[in-house]
Amino acid sequence: MVEGRLSLESEVQEIFQSIDEGRNFLLSGGAGSGKTYSLVSVIRQVLAENPTSKVACMTYTNSAVKEIEERVNHKNLNVSTIHDFLWDNIKHFQKELKETIISLANNEEISKISIDDINTIPYSFFDILPEGIQYKEFVRLREGIISHDELLIVANYLFEKYPKLSSIVKDKYKFIFIDEYQDTSKEVVDIFLTHFKKSERKNVMGFFGDAMQSIYETGIGNLDEYKGDEADTVNEIPKKQNRRNPQLVINLANKLRKDGIIQEPSNDPNAPNMLEGIVKQGNVLFLHSNDGSISNVERYLKENYDWDFDNSKETKELNLTHNLIAGKAGFRTLMDIYDKDHIISFRDRIKKFIKENSITNDFSENTFGEVIQILQAGKIDRELSAVSATNTMQAFIDINAELYEYSKSLNYSEFSKIYVDKDQLLDDKKKDEKDDNKKGSKRDNLIKHLFKIQTNISLYTNKRYNEFLRATDYRYKITSIANKRTLKENIDNLIHVGDKTIDEVIIDADEKGISLIDDKLIDFKEEKEYLYNRVKNVKFSEFQKLYEYLEGKTPFSTQHKTKGAEFDNVLVILDNGGWNNYNFGNLFLETGSSTVLDRTQKIFYVCCTRAKENLAVFYHNPEAQVIDKAKEWFGEMNVIDIS
Ligand SMILES: Nc1ncnc2c1ncn2[C@@H]1O[C@H](COP(=O)(O)OP(=O)(O)OP(=O)(O)O)[C@@H](O)[C@H]1O
Questions:
Q1: How, if at all, do strands 278-279 and 274-275 pair?
Q2: Would you state the torsion angle of the CA atoms of residues 616, 619, 623, 624, taken in this order, to the nearest 10 degrees?
Q3: Could you tell me if 159 and 79 are in contact, meaning their C-beta atoms sit under 8 angstroms apart?
Q4: pLDDT beyond 80 at 615
């Protein structure tokens, strides 16, 4: 056997057998079975055995990126998101890219890529583009700019049509690994498992994941249609043991899985869930109350089970959405600006009306207010209501009268281009600070700038002075002890932001050389004046709260973002706030629409299996049958009314 393999886990040895046979493989296993751990072992061994080959590894979760970075450091390893990987590999084929987009745009069945509803687009359409086709956070197909969703469709088409592209990628990367494969889209899986076959070149694709943890609608869910025993199918290697969870969590997880996979604790005495050679028991609790107060739940867990909610590394409270967290974590105003601006919704209503009614007026010189007036003129009843604010929009406008007046004074063409979405505020990064500007990030340039300021402040406060000097303008300025003193005073001033607004801190940080105002920010101010003006008046301390949250330094996480992570104490809040996609009541009663049930079961499974010691689930006002089921799942004694 090749050196080093013998010391590896048996499943990883099986993976190497597959690699020796040139077969694609899938490492599948329940939560905590050590898939991410195995992935890293495979990468290390592959790099050791193939010193001249390049390895690509794609992953979505921050925890996997962190683990890979901690355990592997090699120039031949390329860790990225799937989007960045695809774009890096197709971006130089501009001629083919242009043709592809035009073909797709002319294909009526592909509604996501459309340039003109009526006329066929000529193949010379993009010839005039100075920068060719680009991949950005927003989409403007007429200008040759594609974004996340389009990229996958375009890449799929390119690999299907040009087998040479597959040959190039296979030659470049002898090994391509995809973590959390279950949340990868069908278009991507097809590239690697179907279109790649059109090229004779050899490489090995490895998938890692768990079908029960497929929690994004766009994901393929499972690889069932590609698995098999023949050489050209995907070789599944299952992992049955659990190294993370205590026995009581494993028992619960086994009840929640719907595919019959039953996990057992590993026989590794050094596994994290073992204590002196015996698996830990842990705690599972189902707490409920009729007041719904989360702070009471926290108090109960603190007093009775010693949970420390100030320790964000050990203890996490998992909520379904960022919106449920924003208030508790202290960034409500910013969240509302990016997620609940009903003047922007009203503008979208107007835009839609213009598009759907094929109104061809030239509004380029008009203000938003004038456009509303022009559209409303002479209309009554239903026609008028189609171009008027809805009740929700009107209620928002009434409270924000000044903001509405201001929006009406803006040039309509400019205003209509501003794209506002919560991802621009909340997108978390997959890589380290240096990569913050990587094209895959959905954060907008204002938020990126604020991150830069706060990152630099943090570098300084954490005494990482060399990195601080590299990141700021200070490397040019520090020439004497006196300079150092000024720097300290400046930073001290800046750190104590007190009640300063975001605008004030941006100017301060610029003047003090901590983060200079760059072209990107200047362009943002000009192009997205409305949004900038809203954000600039928010206190910088609120942004700092958001920063802490996104850096994982608060006890809060969304249920989706917790995938791949693990904590000692996990509190899962089951919020039955009338969601379309989730229903926690139905989860316990096993009723309702099967897709909603399936989705809810999966997110609940992901959440519960994060706990390394203690798991608590909180349910506000459960029905008697929910309590009965909870007793069955958690044990009679562990279902507690804390009202
Ligand atoms: N062979 C091993 N030796 C030591 N520790 C391991 C080993 N395999 C896994 N672990 C540890 O067990 C825990 C669970 O492993 P890991 O996070 O890789 O599981 P996973 O299958 O990726 O889980 P999930 O699907 O829930 O994200 C981690 O703390 C990991 O470091």
A1: antiparallel
A2: 20
A3: no
A4: yes
